[in-house]
Structures
1.
Amino acid sequence: MKDLVGRLSALDPDAGAALKVIAYFDRLVDSHAGLEPIVRGAAVLSGRVARLTVPDRRVLIRVDPDGHRLGDGPPPDAGWPRAGLRSGGALCLERSGPAGPIDAMVLERAVAAVHGVLDRTGEREPREVVLDAAAPVETRLRAARRLGLGETARAVALDGGRARVQAAGTPLTSEERQGIGPVVPVPELPASLAAAKTALRFAATEPDPGPRVVHADELGGLAVLATAVGHDTEPAPDVVALDRALAGAHWVLPTLVAVADSPSLRTAATTLVVHHSTLQERLAHSEALLGWPVRDPRGRLRLQLAIALWRLHRNPE
Amino acid sequence: MTTTTPPPFDAELAAALEVLKEQMPSRFAELDIHARRTEYTELELSDEDLRHGGDFEFEELTVPGPAGELRLLVGRPSGPATGTLYYIHGGGMILGSHRSPDLAYALDWAAELGLAVVSVDYRLAPEHPHPAPVEDCYAGLVWTAEQFDGPLVLAGVSAGGGLAAATALLARDRGGPALTAQMLLCPMLDDRNDTASAHQMTGLGIWDRNANELGWTALLGDRRGTPEVSPYAAPARAEDLSGLPPAFIDVGSAETFRDEAVAYATRLWQAGGQAELHVWPGGFHGFDGLAPQAAISAAARAPRLPWLRRVLGA
C-alpha cells in the first residue's frame, strides 16, 4: 500500500497539491480532530517531522512523516520553517535549508486548525469564564449553568487577584478579606466583579482595624473616588498627613479608624476599650499630628475621606 | 430498507479520504474497468518491494490451474520457512494481481514470522465469472500445501478476503488442505449487497454500494442477489460455517462491508468456530492501507501480527 501512501505524502508543488493541503486540513477541522492528527497531517503532507509546542498547555507533539509519534527530540532550530501561535507556541517543520513550496501552506493551514482546537478545547474553569467579559455571552451562560448559579449571582473579589462567584442569597461565610460585588443577572457578572474589586480596595489590610469585608453596594460615591487613585497617583496632602500621624504612636490608627466609623465618640471609646477622657486626649494629640480637627462633622468627613484614600493608596488596582 | 445516518468517518481518515477520493472515487461503477486496471497495474509491487530488504527470494511460477496455467508469486524466506502465508489480493473481483500493493503488509508479517508467501494471480471478472476466481485460488492453495510443510494460513483483503473465506469453505468441503487459520481483512462476502451498512454508506467512502454492485455483478452476472448464488462465490450464503479454521476478521464501522463481516464472525461463533473480530470506529474500506499514517490505522494493524503468532504457536 505504500504507493498509495505516496499519493498523500509526495505532493507535487503545484496548485493541485495546495488544494489537497487545504482539503485535508479543512476536513480535519470539520471533523473536530485533535492536535495530534493536525500535527500528523503537517508531517505527512510536508514529508518532514512536524513539531507543535503550546507552552501554556504544556503540549509538545512531534510526529514523523509516516505518522509515528516521536519523543521530544533536539531543541528547535531557529532555521526551521515555523508558524507562531497566538498563545506563544509554534508549529515547526524540522528541516534545514530552504522551505519547500508546500511547507508554507501546510504551516498556515495547520496552525489555523491548531488555533481552532485550542479555542474549542480551551475549556477554562467555569468560574473563570462567567467572570470574563471577553468570553461570548453564550459561553458564559453555559459556564453559569455548569456552576448551578441560577438567574442572578454576584462576584466576590479576593486577595491575590482571586475571585469567587456566588449564587444570589448565598450567605457570606468567609472571614477572608473580600470585596463583595452586587447581585446581577448572570451575563453581567463581569461588571459585578469590577465593582467587587473596587470594594476590595476599601477593605482593611493589617494593621488597619477597619472592615475586612466591603460591599460594593454600600460604597456610594466612594466608588468614584476609587477611580481617582491609581498606582502613580500622588497622595493628597491629607493622606500624607495621615501617614505621618500614624507613624506617631501605635494607637493613632485604631483611634482614628474608630472615630471615623463610629456614630459617636462614646461608641468609639467603647470600641477601643478606653475611657472617654483618654480618647479625648488621644484625639487632641492626633489632631495636632494631622493638622485638622476630627471632632466636628466637616473634620470627620475629611478624616473619613483621608482614611478611604489612604486605603486606596495601600491597595492600588 | 430505510437509510439511516451513517457513522462518521474518523477525523484523520475523513481528511485523508478528502484527498484520496479524487483518485479513488466511490462512483466506481461509472468508471471504465480497463482504465482502472491499467492505473492499478502502476501500483504493483516492484521486485525490490518483494525482496523486502532481503527477507525473501521471489519467483513467479506457472502451475497447473483449473483452466490451464495459473500464475503464482512464491516468496521463500532466507532461512527455513516456519509456515506459509497464502495470500489473495483485493480489487473488487475486477482489479489487481498477485503483485497488488496490498500484498505489502502480508510481506511484513511473513518476514517477521519467517513464513513463506504465496500470492495467487487469480483470473478476474467479468471476463472470468464465478467460479473462475475461487477455483484459481483453490488450485493455488492445493499446490502450495503440496510444496510447503508446516502451518498454512490463508489471508486476503477485500475481494481477497471474500475469496479466502470461500477458499476455506472449498478446502473444508473437498477435504482439501488443512488450514491453520484464515485472515479476512474487510472481506467482501455477500453479493446481496443489502445490509444496513451497505445502504448507509451509499455514495460515501472508497467502495460504496454501487461499486459493490458492479463488482458482484461482474462476478455473478444476472445471478447476483438471487437464490442461485453459490457459497463458494459469496461465503455469506454458506448455511454451514462449522469446521472452518479460526478466523481473524476486521472491518471499519463506516464501510459497506461492516455488517456482513460482523455477521460472518457471529455465525462462525454460532457454528462453534473461533473468530477474532475487530470493528474500527470511523474506518472506511481499506482505511489502514490507504491512510496508513492515521492513528486508527496503526491501531488496526497492531493486532494482526500477535494473532498470527497465536494461531501459529510462534
2.
Amino acid sequence: MSDDGGLWLLLLGPAGATGLYWALYRYYRNTDKSHDFEHETAVEAKPVTGSDRKVDEVRGTQETRIDGDNVRAYRKRVTRIRRNSS
Amino acid sequence: MSNSASPPPVPPYTGPGSPQDVPPPPGSFPIDPASLPPPIRDELLAPDPVAIDTSAAELKDGLNRCPKCGATDIKQKPGSDLLICLYCRNEWHAQRVEEEFGLGEGLDQLEGTVIASGARDIAADAASVMTFKCTGCGAEVTVNTENAMTARCHWCRHVFGVNEQVANGAVPDAVLPFHIKKDDAVARIRQFVDKRRMFALKAFKEQFTPENVIGVYLPYMIVDGKASADVSGHGEILTRTYTQGSGDKKKTYYDADVYQVERHVDFTVDDLPLESSSERGNLDTGTNTNNIINTILPFDTKNAVKWNASYLSGFSSEKRDSGVEQLRPRLENQLLSIARAQVEASTSRYDRGVRWEQEGLSVHGTRWVSMYLPVWLYSYHQPGSNGGMLHYIAVNGRTGETMGSVPVQQWKLLLAALTVGSVLETIALMIVGNT
Ligand SMILES: [Zn+2]
Ligand SMILES: [Zn+2]
C-alpha cells in the first residue's frame, strides 16, 4: 500500500468510468484519427547529423521523464527559427 | 461516482492540422478489451474491414473519343483503370502521369516551386458552369464544375467532359480512377458500422442505408519536396535511481545528466497529399468529421492517369479552391513533423526523453500536381445545435481502407461507463475496507 493507506483505490471507479467513456467514444467517433503522414509518406533522408553536449545535471527529481518531453509529439510545433528558404 | 453525472469535457481542439496529436496505431484500444463486459468485448474484437493493395496494369494512350469507332459514350471499366466504349465495347488504357510528367524522378534535384498546369492558381472570376455546343445536334450542354465534370446531351446522348485545362484551375492534372466497386464499398461500410452498433445513435441505426454511398472525386495537391530541417533542445539521461524513507513514506528519486541536443536532417518526400479544398482541409473535429476522409490517405498516386473526364462519368466531384500559396503553410507544418519523426531514432540514448525547443526548416524545392482522388462517402446528418454534425464513413476508392464516425447515444454510453465504474468502485471499496 502507498502512503495514503490505499485510499487512491477509491479513484478506480471514477477513473475507470471516465476512461471507458472516452475509449468507447473515440472508438465510435474516431476523432483522434488522421493520416499518419510521418510514417506513410515515402521519405528519403540522408543520415541525421548533430551534436550532444552535456550542460547540466539533475539531482533527486521524482519525475520519470524530462519536463516537456515532446520527442514523439511530432505535430506539436515549437519555436520556429526562420531561415532563408529558397 | 459524482464526477460522471454529465459527459466528461471534450478535449480541446489545438490548432491547424487537427487532430494535432500523432494518431494512435491502427486497431489499438486504450483499454484491454478482455477486461470489459462480453458484449462490448465482442464488438471491439470483431474483425475490421480489410484494405487491399492494388497495382495498376500498364497504361497507354487515352482519348476521350473511342479510338476504334469514335463514339463518345465512354466509361471507366469498373474495378480497373481501363476505359471502355459502351458502343463497340472497345477497351483501352490512359497514360500514367508518373511517366508522362516525369514525377517521382529527380526529387533530389528539386529547386524552387514547380507547378503543374492544373495546379495553377484559380482565377477569381472563373465561372463554375461551362457550356458546350453539341457537335451532334447543336444543342447547348452545361457542366457545373462545382460537382461534376461530365454531362450528357439530352437530345443525341453525346457525352461531354471538361477536358480542356481552362486556365481557371478547375481541371486537375491527373485523376486516379476508382478501383473499389460500389458493392464492395457498401460491404465495407456495413462491416464498419456492424462493429459499432451497441452505443450508436438510435436514429442513425434506423436510417442506416449504406447503399446510398456516393463515389466522389476529391481534389488534392500531390507534393514532392526537398528540404532540410534543424531541431534543438534538451535531453536527459538517467544516471541513478534511489529510494528514500521507508514504508508508506518511501519515495523514488532520479539523477540525470542534461544535454544540449542539436539535430540536422536533409530529406525528400514523394507524393505527400494535401486537401486542396479549404473545407476538406479543415480538420477541426469539434465542428466536422473531415478527419475521417483524411485518415483513409494515402492513395497509390503513382498510378494516376492524365486528366480525362471520361473517368468521372457516373461519379460526383468537388472543386478545388486552394492554390499553392494557401497550402504552403500546411506543407511546411507537415515537413517539420516528418523531420521530427526522422530524428527521433537518433535520440534513443536519452532515456528520460527530449524536449525540443526550437526547429527550423529550409524548403529547397517543391513540385505540385493537382489530382482527383476517388472516395466512397456515406454521410449521416445528426441534428443538433449549430446545424448539427455531418458524420462521414469513407472508403478509399483504391485500397478499400475504411474509416468512419458513428454518432453515439450519449445516455447509453454513460450508463455503460457508470456501470463498469461502479463495479470497479465496489472492488476498490472491498479492498480498502479489508486493509
Ligand atoms: Zn467504340
Ligand atoms: Zn446533342
